[in-house]
Write a structure and sequence with these properties.
With 197 residues, this protein is mainly α. It is built from six helices and no strands. The protein is globular. The model has no long low-confidence stretch (mean pLDDT 86).
Protein backbone atom coordinates (compact mmCIF):
# COMPACT_ATOMS: atom_id res chain seq x y z
CA UNK A 1 0.00 0.00 0.00
CA UNK A 2 1.49 3.33 -1.04
CA UNK A 3 1.62 6.39 1.18
CA UNK A 4 -0.94 8.11 -1.04
CA UNK A 5 -3.40 5.21 -0.70
CA UNK A 6 -2.85 5.04 3.05
CA UNK A 7 -3.38 8.80 3.42
CA UNK A 8 -6.64 8.57 1.49
CA UNK A 9 -7.84 5.68 3.67
CA UNK A 10 -6.74 7.53 6.81
CA UNK A 11 -8.60 10.74 5.93
CA UNK A 12 -11.77 8.96 4.80
CA UNK A 13 -11.84 6.86 7.97
CA UNK A 14 -11.31 9.99 10.07
CA UNK A 15 -14.20 11.73 8.32
CA UNK A 16 -16.46 8.71 8.79
CA UNK A 17 -15.55 8.51 12.49
CA UNK A 18 -16.19 12.22 13.00
CA UNK A 19 -19.59 12.14 11.28
CA UNK A 20 -20.59 8.94 13.11
CA UNK A 21 -19.64 10.46 16.49
CA UNK A 22 -21.55 13.64 15.65
CA UNK A 23 -24.71 11.68 14.83
CA UNK A 24 -24.38 9.40 17.87
CA UNK A 25 -23.57 12.30 20.22
CA UNK A 26 -26.49 14.41 19.01
CA UNK A 27 -28.77 11.39 19.25
CA UNK A 28 -27.69 10.69 22.82
CA UNK A 29 -28.20 14.35 23.71
CA UNK A 30 -31.62 14.39 22.07
CA UNK A 31 -32.92 11.24 23.75
CA UNK A 32 -31.00 11.24 27.05
CA UNK A 33 -30.12 14.89 27.55
CA UNK A 34 -27.03 13.92 29.51
CA UNK A 35 -25.31 17.31 29.07
CA UNK A 36 -26.70 20.56 30.47
CA UNK A 37 -25.80 23.48 28.24
CA UNK A 38 -25.03 26.70 30.15
CA UNK A 39 -25.46 28.96 27.16
CA UNK A 40 -25.45 29.35 23.40
CA UNK A 41 -21.66 29.00 23.23
CA UNK A 42 -21.83 25.54 24.81
CA UNK A 43 -24.52 24.54 22.36
CA UNK A 44 -22.40 25.69 19.40
CA UNK A 45 -19.15 24.17 20.65
CA UNK A 46 -20.70 20.76 21.42
CA UNK A 47 -20.83 19.58 17.74
CA UNK A 48 -17.17 20.57 17.31
CA UNK A 49 -16.26 18.51 20.37
CA UNK A 50 -18.21 15.57 18.94
CA UNK A 51 -16.41 15.86 15.58
CA UNK A 52 -13.01 15.99 17.32
CA UNK A 53 -13.86 13.03 19.53
CA UNK A 54 -14.99 11.03 16.50
CA UNK A 55 -11.75 11.83 14.71
CA UNK A 56 -9.80 10.55 17.73
CA UNK A 57 -11.91 7.38 17.83
CA UNK A 58 -11.16 6.84 14.14
CA UNK A 59 -7.42 7.16 14.78
CA UNK A 60 -7.75 4.60 17.58
CA UNK A 61 -9.63 2.35 15.16
CA UNK A 62 -6.90 2.71 12.56
CA UNK A 63 -4.21 1.79 15.07
CA UNK A 64 -6.14 -1.40 15.80
CA UNK A 65 -6.58 -2.05 12.08
CA UNK A 66 -2.89 -1.82 11.29
CA UNK A 67 -2.05 -3.87 14.38
CA UNK A 68 -4.44 -6.52 13.05
CA UNK A 69 -2.81 -6.41 9.59
CA UNK A 70 0.59 -6.94 11.20
CA UNK A 71 -0.72 -9.77 13.40
CA UNK A 72 -2.42 -11.41 10.42
CA UNK A 73 0.75 -11.15 8.33
CA UNK A 74 2.77 -12.78 11.12
CA UNK A 75 0.12 -15.45 11.70
CA UNK A 76 0.10 -16.40 8.03
CA UNK A 77 3.90 -16.56 8.09
CA UNK A 78 4.14 -18.71 11.22
CA UNK A 79 1.15 -21.09 10.98
CA UNK A 80 -0.41 -23.06 8.20
CA UNK A 81 -3.47 -21.36 6.72
CA UNK A 82 -5.99 -23.76 8.31
CA UNK A 83 -4.28 -23.58 11.71
CA UNK A 84 -4.27 -19.76 11.63
CA UNK A 85 -7.98 -19.76 10.83
CA UNK A 86 -8.71 -22.02 13.83
CA UNK A 87 -6.59 -19.78 16.07
CA UNK A 88 -8.56 -16.73 14.89
CA UNK A 89 -11.87 -18.47 15.59
CA UNK A 90 -10.77 -19.46 19.12
CA UNK A 91 -9.45 -15.97 19.91
CA UNK A 92 -12.62 -14.30 18.60
CA UNK A 93 -14.85 -16.58 20.69
CA UNK A 94 -12.70 -16.06 23.80
CA UNK A 95 -12.83 -12.27 23.34
CA UNK A 96 -16.61 -12.38 22.97
CA UNK A 97 -17.04 -14.58 26.04
CA UNK A 98 -14.71 -12.33 28.04
CA UNK A 99 -16.76 -9.30 27.07
CA UNK A 100 -20.08 -10.95 27.86
CA UNK A 101 -19.33 -12.86 31.05
CA UNK A 102 -15.83 -12.56 32.50
CA UNK A 103 -16.11 -9.01 33.86
CA UNK A 104 -19.38 -9.77 35.63
CA UNK A 105 -18.33 -13.06 37.19
CA UNK A 106 -14.79 -12.07 38.12
CA UNK A 107 -15.05 -8.34 38.71
CA UNK A 108 -18.72 -8.17 39.66
CA UNK A 109 -18.74 -4.48 38.78
CA UNK A 110 -21.00 -4.32 35.74
CA UNK A 111 -24.41 -5.40 34.60
CA UNK A 112 -24.54 -8.83 32.97
CA UNK A 113 -27.44 -7.73 30.76
CA UNK A 114 -25.50 -4.79 29.32
CA UNK A 115 -22.41 -6.90 28.64
CA UNK A 116 -24.42 -9.67 26.96
CA UNK A 117 -26.34 -7.11 24.90
CA UNK A 118 -23.12 -5.43 23.80
CA UNK A 119 -21.58 -8.80 22.92
CA UNK A 120 -24.60 -9.81 20.85
CA UNK A 121 -24.55 -6.43 19.07
CA UNK A 122 -20.85 -6.78 18.22
CA UNK A 123 -21.41 -10.36 17.01
CA UNK A 124 -24.33 -9.24 14.81
CA UNK A 125 -22.31 -6.39 13.30
CA UNK A 126 -19.35 -8.75 12.73
CA UNK A 127 -21.53 -11.29 10.90
CA UNK A 128 -23.12 -8.59 8.71
CA UNK A 129 -19.75 -7.05 7.82
CA UNK A 130 -18.25 -10.50 7.13
CA UNK A 131 -21.19 -11.32 4.86
CA UNK A 132 -20.60 -8.19 2.76
CA UNK A 133 -16.84 -8.76 2.74
CA UNK A 134 -17.28 -12.32 1.46
CA UNK A 135 -19.80 -11.11 -1.11
CA UNK A 136 -17.35 -8.54 -2.47
CA UNK A 137 -14.23 -10.78 -2.30
CA UNK A 138 -14.32 -14.52 -1.60
CA UNK A 139 -15.16 -17.06 1.11
CA UNK A 140 -11.62 -16.94 2.53
CA UNK A 141 -12.38 -13.48 3.96
CA UNK A 142 -15.09 -14.80 6.33
CA UNK A 143 -12.92 -15.81 9.32
CA UNK A 144 -10.41 -12.93 9.21
CA UNK A 145 -13.24 -10.40 8.99
CA UNK A 146 -15.09 -11.97 11.92
CA UNK A 147 -11.85 -12.04 13.92
CA UNK A 148 -11.11 -8.39 13.22
CA UNK A 149 -14.65 -7.17 13.88
CA UNK A 150 -14.99 -9.21 17.08
CA UNK A 151 -11.62 -9.72 18.76
CA UNK A 152 -9.88 -6.53 17.68
CA UNK A 153 -12.96 -4.36 18.28
CA UNK A 154 -13.37 -5.81 21.77
CA UNK A 155 -9.72 -5.15 22.59
CA UNK A 156 -10.16 -1.57 21.36
CA UNK A 157 -13.18 -0.89 23.59
CA UNK A 158 -11.83 -2.39 26.83
CA UNK A 159 -10.80 1.05 28.10
CA UNK A 160 -14.24 2.61 27.73
CA UNK A 161 -15.90 -0.43 29.30
CA UNK A 162 -13.94 0.21 32.49
CA UNK A 163 -15.68 3.58 32.82
CA UNK A 164 -19.00 1.78 33.25
CA UNK A 165 -21.17 4.58 31.77
CA UNK A 166 -23.67 3.44 29.14
CA UNK A 167 -23.61 6.72 27.18
CA UNK A 168 -19.81 6.68 27.00
CA UNK A 169 -19.87 3.08 25.81
CA UNK A 170 -22.40 3.83 23.07
CA UNK A 171 -20.53 6.98 22.04
CA UNK A 172 -17.26 5.06 21.65
CA UNK A 173 -18.45 1.70 20.33
CA UNK A 174 -20.73 2.83 17.50
CA UNK A 175 -18.19 5.06 15.65
CA UNK A 176 -15.44 2.52 16.33
CA UNK A 177 -17.43 -0.33 14.76
CA UNK A 178 -18.36 1.87 11.81
CA UNK A 179 -14.69 2.79 11.24
CA UNK A 180 -13.58 -0.83 11.61
CA UNK A 181 -16.27 -1.98 9.17
CA UNK A 182 -15.30 0.67 6.64
CA UNK A 183 -11.60 -0.22 6.81
CA UNK A 184 -12.03 -3.98 6.47
CA UNK A 185 -14.57 -3.58 3.65
CA UNK A 186 -12.30 -1.14 1.80
CA UNK A 187 -8.98 -2.97 2.21
CA UNK A 188 -9.31 -5.22 -0.84
CA UNK A 189 -10.22 -2.24 -3.04
CA UNK A 190 -7.13 -0.34 -1.91
CA UNK A 191 -4.80 -3.30 -2.45
CA UNK A 192 -6.39 -4.24 -5.79
CA UNK A 193 -5.96 -0.69 -7.05
CA UNK A 194 -2.35 -0.77 -5.91
CA UNK A 195 -1.71 -4.04 -7.76
CA UNK A 196 -3.26 -2.67 -10.96
CA UNK A 197 -1.12 0.48 -10.88
Amino acid sequence: MSLRKWSKLFLKTMLIGAVAALIVGLGLQLFNGFIDFKGVADFLIYPLILLGSGALVSVYSQMGFFAYLTLNYMGIGIFRKKTWQYIQIVLAVLALLELMFFRTFVGGSTSLGQDVGLGIAILAVAVIVAYFKVKSTNANAWIPTLFFMMAVSIVEIIGVLQIGVSNATIFMVVPLLICNAYQILTLHKVTQDEKKS
